[in-house]
Amino acid sequence: MAGAEDMDRLLAEVLAATAPLRGSGRVATYIPALADVDPNRFGIAFADGTGEVHGAGDCDVPFSIQSISKVFTLALALERVGPALWDKVGREPSGSAFNSIVQLEHEQGKPRNPLINPGAIVVTDQLVGDGGADAAIDRLLAFLRVEAGDGSIRVDDAVAASEAATGARNRSLAWFMKSFGILTNDVETVLSAYFRHCALAMSCRQLARAGLFLAFDGRDPCTGREVVAWHRARRINSVMMLCGHYDNSGEFAFRVGLPGKSGVGGGILAVAPGHGTIAVWSPGLNEAGTSAAGAAALEALVERTGWSVFF
Ligand code: GLU
To answer: Confidence class of residue 2 from pLDDT cuts 50, 70 and 90?
Structure first.
């Protein structure tokens, strides 16, 4: 692994190399509260195997992690219900938009994977099962605060309210799955938890640190504590690799070669097994919904470190 100074230098280099791309792409506007974000923001952070977090640019500015939260809810749901989760949600790339309803009808309401909206709503349904939506969010916040070592992580209530007010498509998906018996709890209860976990505000530093267990076979590399079983961490990574970036997951695997998850807030969490985790944030999205400058930054980092899992 590169030394601490090397890593700081490397992140500064990636920041400079991708500067011309800053502001490119389009900020998500279908959630009104996300439309106001400055498209020129750019942050990157790397958490290494000692738990140290290196950062550059706007790496301390909290942003809306949106669908990146689906990685953490998946981890919690797998710990909670085990492999039975896969009876309700598949693990194949969808090849269609993250909020598509067409595939759901063909496949009797069982979503293709847990990282597209209907799949994540199914996962959230499993988390609200006992205790309701507030308890599910409290458990998720407690988990993230411990893993990130930062008690200040919170849900951005304005973003959650904005999404709840405009969430007709997610409501349709949820009711559709309810009609097939895939969702077990009250639809509005499940969505209230779903909208809130998508509205988590985290900085690149917090996000990289919180996901570090995924790079070390489910363990916190600093303490050796098992966060999730090793086989679960590997499987979460495999789902991220195949399904983590909407309908450009293949492109991301091709260019970056690391498991990752994009969110429409412009964040990407990427996992370099055995090395660490990288979180990047730049709000301008490409056509498929992945951060344009963020993906380019990860590509530049991997080019310089050789961290592709296909190495
Ligand atoms: N909260 C967003 C939605 O449900 C998440 C989308 C994303 O980041 O992929 O549409």
So the answer is: low
| Contact by Cβ (8 Å): 174, 181 | no
Whether this model's pTM surpasses 0.85: yes
Pairing of strands 267-272, 276-281: antiparallel
Q: Is the CB of 58 under 6 A from ligand 1?
A: no
Alpha helices in 181-291 (DSSP H): 187-198, 204-210, 230-243, 249-255
Domains of the chain: 4-63+203-305 (3.40.710.10), 67-198 (3.40.710.10)
Residues 49, 7 contacting (CB under 8 angstroms): no
Q: What are the tokens at 150?
A: 């930062």
**Which tens digits make up the pLDDT trace of 141-177?**
999 999 999 999 999 999 999 999 999 999 999 999 9
Cα 7 to Cα 209: distance, rounded to the nearest angstrom: 15
73 CB within 6 A, ligand 1: no
Q: Which atom of ligand 1 is nearest to the CA of 264?
A: 8
